[in-house]
Amino acid sequence: MKKRVLVTAVAASALALAGAAQAEVKIGFLGGFTGPIESLTPPIYEGAQLAVQQINEQGGILGGQQLVMPSGDTTCADASAATNAADRMVNTEQVTAIVGALCTGATIAAANNAAIPGGVVMVSPASTAPAVSELDDNDLVFRTVPSDAFQGEMLAKLLLDQGIEEVAVTYVNNDYGRGLADAFGEAFEAGGGLVAENLAHEDGRADYRSELGSLSATGTETLVVLAYADGSGQTVLRQAYEGGMFTQYVGADGMVGDRLVEAVGADVLEGMIATRPGSPDLPGTEIFNEAAEAAGFDPSAVFAAQAYDAAFLLALAIEQNGSAERAGLAEALRSVSSAPGEMVLPGEWEKAVELIAAGTEINYEGASGSHEFDENGDVPGVVVEMAVEGGAFVSRGFIEP
């Protein structure tokens, strides 16, 4: 009798566990929680988590199931770590989709080695390199941030408009650095500027004085550093200052973090200029800003709004698809993000669920853009001028094309 009761109890527990498992829908998050962007990653993750929180507070997904977001660390710099993290998401966690990765190399490794073979849709909020557009991805890799083909043009225009006509460039030797350096250099010289020297460097080294010596030997006063705030970019700027090299520092999105200013020195970097993808003046932008502030993180943090949109869009696509299955999700993602359709704004989960249930087409207008994905899964966007003022990066507004 005791044995029978025990077997019955075990069976009941197994059924309960199965029911609990069925009551969850998983969207994974891949980010650089350690490595050269570790100070930039937390608010990006918080942006995605805000979308999850709102969805669960408004009744959950697929008839009341909880949306959960397991995370994995790609380190940003290690392709094998990115592959392992993605493999765990795809094959162990059994996620329906993935927000991420953040660094381009991590996104490419995760996609090629795990997500594409597993049929898992990825939406990166931060991988900006043009190489992402060239993936043979079976329409599985998207991004809510514009390509560096555009950011490079806008950075070149910003410098030329400010009368900076000669620069030396150093870039981290990966897909992100190379892609951005190529786009910037081509646009800068097409606009009449001169790239006096253009040198790659490897991330994670302790000494870049040799490269800096070659760059400063050109005699130019402006150094463009296309790297990461917690990695080589920080070391390059510190050693450039210690060596008395250059009078103007320039960066791009990977360098926009206040920890960079704290590490190198506010007085050293005062007046540094940079670019980063921004959020256009859309109704969803202010809604997100208020929700992020209420949740306790900075809505202007680089890629936070893009991460929110990536998570919210994937949840909408799952709801539209009608199940947590992976098949058909890419088509559903394109459907919920594109006109025509009734507008859905950030936080309007209950409204979206009702519209989808009624068979009404929806069109998500997000926190960071409209997100009309092209054939490569890319979106148009805007680029913001940033500058170090008073010990922190501040926005100076959009750069007009």
UniProtKB/TrEMBL annotation:
Residues 24-337 form the Leucine-binding protein domain. Residues 1-23 form the signal peptide. The keyword Lipoprotein does not apply. The keyword Transport applies. InterPro entries: BCAA_transport, Leu-bd, Leu_Ile_Val-bd, Peripla_BP_I. CDD domains: PBP1_ABC_ligand_binding-like. Pfam families: Peripla_BP_6 (PF13458). GO terms for biological process: amino acid transport. Belongs to the leucine-binding protein family. This is Amino acid ABC transporter substrate-binding protein. It comes from Halomonas heilongjiangensis.
